[in-house]
Amino acid sequence: GHITAETLMSILRDKASGICVDAEGFRTAGSMVSVLPRDPALPCVHFFTATPDPSRSVFKPFVFVAGIKPAPQVRSPTFLQDPARQIPRFQSSVDRRHELYRRHQAALELMEQDQERGQQLLETLQELEKQGLEGMRELLE
């Protein structure tokens, strides 16, 4: 009956169902949950992981507004000598991972190498996500 953003986030994190995949060289690339209020005067709030494996990612809130500038942490880097733009193309490679992705990968490594510290980090991230959900509820009230 009553589906919340948390319900959808939980579904997207469900590894047992096969929705969230982290095996055999394939990992869920990223996930998104949108809250679309019935009142057109209220903003739509979108939650993006912007990182793979939603079971170990944080859904971050975002509201689209005019003139918004993308956060530099989620923009892929640009290169003066970009191999994709040189002829012949792709004769070299560059690291196109954005800062948030690189930090996410470091967090995953910590979670795998030091379970206690990794669990503490995951709990901190989950608390930040909870704060984002609470902020969304306040915005929409």
Automatic annotation (TrEMBL):
One of the entry's Gene Ontology molecular-function terms is:
cysteine-type exopeptidase activity
Q: Identify this protein by name.
A: Secernin-2
PANTHER family with a match to the protein in the record? SECERNIN, SECERNIN-2
UniProt GO BP: proteolysis
Q: Which family does it belong to?
A: Belongs to the peptidase C69 family. Secernin subfamily.
Q: Which InterPro entries match?
A: Peptidase_C69
